Amino acid sequence: MTKKQYDFINQGLEKYYNQLANMSPEERKYFLKNSLFNQPIDFEKEIDGTVYSVKTFFNPDAKESIQEKMIRILGLKEQDVEKLSESD
């Protein structure tokens, strides 16, 4: 992924997070219920002769948000997250 593509995705995510942050819990619940996939988002994609199978699973009892999970998986530190937040 190029830096330009990476920045574009991050800008979109930041806009999405800000939109959610400005909603009341009721508005957020309604928005998410009506804007997310109503069908499973599992799929297969072939890239350069290799077939990639993407399977999704959402645990209703999860203790962390997707943002918290991505921060943990990427191994970001608190100061890294703050820098990303300040880049608006």
Q: What are the main properties of this structure?
A:
88 residues; mainly alpha; two-stranded antiparallel sheet; 4 helices; 2 strands
Describe the structure.
The chain contains 4 helices and 2 strands, in the order H-H-E-E-H-H. It has 88 residues and is mainly alpha-helical. The chain has one domain. A two-stranded antiparallel sheet has the order 1-2.
| Count of strand segments | 2
Give the helix level as a range of percent.
40-55%
Quote the distance from N terminus to C terminus.
21 Å
Largest sheet: 2 strands, antiparallel
Q: Briefly note the structural class of the backbone.
A: mainly alpha
What is the topology, as strand order, of the major beta sheet?
A: 1-2
Mean pLDDT: 79
SSE order in H/E notation?
HHEEHH
Q: Could you tell me the strand content as a percent range? A: 5-15%
Residue windows where pLDDT falls under 50 for at least 5 positions:
none
Shape: globular
Radius of gyration based on Cα positions: 16 Å
Count of DSSP helices? Answer: 4
User: What's the number of domains?
Assistant: 1
Short description:
With 88 residues, the protein is mainly alpha-helical. The chain has helices at 3-21, 25-35, 66-74, 78-86, and strands spanning 43-47, 50-54.
